[in-house]
Amino acid sequence: MKRLIALLAVAGTILSASCRDSTPRDAESAAVEMKVYAVPASRSNEVRLMLQGALGGDNPVGRVTPGPGDTLVVVAPAQVQEGVRGLISGLDAVDPKAEPLQLTISYWMVVGRPLQNAPPDGPGYLVSGDSKLTAIESALATIVATQGPTEFTLMEKVQITALNSDRGIARGRHASVEQRISEIDGRVTGDVAVHVGGNTLDTRIALEPGQLLVMGQVGYSGGMGDAFDTDGSDDLTLYYVIMRQL
Fold it and tell me: Under 8 Å CB-to-CB from 123, ≥6 apart: which residues?
């Protein structure tokens, strides 16, 4: 049975850590409030997507919806509202005539299997095939630290460049990727769907420039890309490595 495992979530929110404090200092700070914020029309969708990424997730702390005119309606505790207010007030400093921002996100689909007799003086992993995966060595090291010695092979790398907050789609030989990503103050958040054969990763990401997100799907049995030799009995895992390019 396939299951997803999160190995490294280099993520954050646009709000301070205190905004997710599960033990607020007093009842007033925990009270849910509804606030209406005016935002520049040209950035309304961008800010809404960013706030949805920050407020949502596995443990949502609030919600945001479009309001009348150029406004957003945010329902969240008072502490969270402070962070939202600070974010939106900072938009005034952004030059509305600036060139549209383009975001480039790279996706590596890497197949791994347990490595027997790993060299004692090595990194704990081997890479088979022509691709050496130098750009994601830190991700491979994180997998090894969690899963033990591993042999990797690259199935495919897909890269999408799209305008800020726009939908991006890319289709490779083995994988297809859909994304809608936004950036505010250097941090990108958004929704991503990666399809590899009958395997799908559908998730929300939050990344700083150059940081990595790694997830694995245990029980993988699809195509191998630059495959290592296998007799079909290996315990394979499909790893998704996602990075915002600088």
Answer: 137, 140, 141, 144
Write down which residue in 93, 124, 139 finishes a domain: 93
Amino acid making up residue 7: L
123 and 229 inside one domain: yes
- Looking at the fold, whether 197 and 141 belong to one and the same domain comes out as yes
Distance from the Cα of residue 122 to its chain's centroid = 29
Question: How far is it, in rounded angstroms, from Cα 118 to Cα 136?
Answer: 19
Residue 152 confidence class, pLDDT cut points 50, 70, 90 = very high
Number of H helices, E strands in the chain: 4, 13
Residues 52, 113, single domain; the answer is: no
Task: Residue 53: give the domain boundaries.
Answer: 17-93
Measured distance between the N- and C-terminal CA atoms of the chain, rounded to whole angstroms:
37
pLDDT digits (tens, 9 = 90+) for 78-137: 988 988 888 788 766 555 555 567 899 999 999 998 988 888 888 999 998 878 899 999
pTM: 0.67
Six-digit token pair at 224?
Answer: 């191998």
